[in-house]
Structure formats: C-alpha cells, structure tokens
# Entry
Amino acid sequence: MAKTFKILRFDPVRDANPHFQEFLHDPKPTDSILEALKDIRDRQDPSLAFRYSCREAVCGSCGLTVNGKICLACKEIVGRIEADLIVVEPLPNFEIQKDLVVDLAPFWEAYRHIEPYLQPEGEAPPGGHRVAEEKMEKVYQNITCILCACCYAACPVASRDGRYLGPAALAKLYRFVRDPRDRRPFESLAKVDSPTGVWGCDTVFRCNDVCPKSVRPADGIEGLRRTLVARRTKRLFKGKR
# Structure
C-alpha cells in the first residue's frame, strides 16, 4: 500500500524558510526509511538531500526524525509504521544545511573538547598498554557509541543552551575515565565540571531513550558526577595534610 512521505525541504539558495513536500511512494514492508528516501530521490526528486553511508546502523550518518521519533533511518522499518502518513524531518537542535542534512559542528566541537583519546601514564610498554578483557567489560557500554548525534538532538538542555557539551561527549569522556589504562589529570575532568558540562544535565533520560546502541549517556553523566565529587574530595583532604 502506498504511503505519503511528508519530507521537510530547505535549500538555502532558493528558500526563505523550510517547508514540507509530499511524495506518494509504495515501499516494500521490509524497506527501511533510508531505502524509501533513496527510492524517492532516485525516482521522483534527485535534489532531495540526506546523509547515509553504511546502511547497517554502524556509521551513525543517517540520524533523522520520523513521525516525531529521533532514530537512524536505516533501522526504522516502514512496515512497522501503521500510519499512512510518514513525516520525515532532520535532527532537531542543529542548523539545517539542506533538506535533511544538518550542521553537526557544535556536536563535533563538544566531542573534541573532552579530548576523546586514551591518556596513559608514561611511555608505552613493549606490546602496548594491555588490559584484561574482564576490566574492559566495565566500559563496553560506552564504547559502542557510533556518534550519530541522536542523543544531542533529543537533549532539552542542548536545545536551550548551545554551550552545553551534550550527552555523547560526556558519555565518551566517562568511557575513558573508566578505562583502567587512562591516567588523565584532574584538570581534564575539571573542564566539564560546570553548568555547561556534567551539571547542566536535566536527567530526563531522553538521550537514553533514543540511543540506537543502548549506550545510556545519562548513566555516563551520572558516573562523571560521582567521579568528579570523589576526586575533588580526595584532592581536598590531601591539601589539608
């Protein structure tokens, strides 16, 4: 049965404001929203712009909003959507560049800010910094983040404060803090010890709800808060000795 795809369109070269355009399309029930968009682009309007790459929920490129739900277009199956009208919009909390493509610069700036790389102590030993597999199980949940920005798009704090680092960046920092090989100084954590960092989170768990990889970023933010308090307390007692 054909469905109506109501897609938000915006071309900054010719459009003053975003607007919706409807396409009648008859997808297979097993098609993903991404496959439907590709068919619409190929058969009806080659100017339709959207991002995608792997098509297997690995690259995180195809984040969209479908009938109000923030998701990966490659994972959202048309046959599971009962409505005949499918509304497709870009991720919120980002500036639209063209149609369904948004400017992810704020997301990547926040990611770079937290220094998303391992910071071990001293020179690397022969064979590298090895760690037991059971110890890495503690950080596995945070490792699976694919940086799709869905959590940032769903975050109410990011929607009202562009300075907020966002769930993905903070959860990624917690991934390194929990890594037994990481020895970053307290000053690295102090960079997120602010209202635009870990203390800005409203703890409404929308980021957990939309994450396609079950990373649960809000849990990581809570973990960072506990870590900051513990390390700050430790430094305070050391200073009194």
User: Anything to note?
Assistant: Residues 3-103 form a domain with the Ubiquitin-like (UB roll) fold (CATH 3.10.20.30). Residues 92 and 153 are 5 Å apart (CA to CA). The longest helix spans residues 217-240. Strands lie at 3-9, 19-25, 63-66, 69-72, 85-89, 95-98, 101-103.
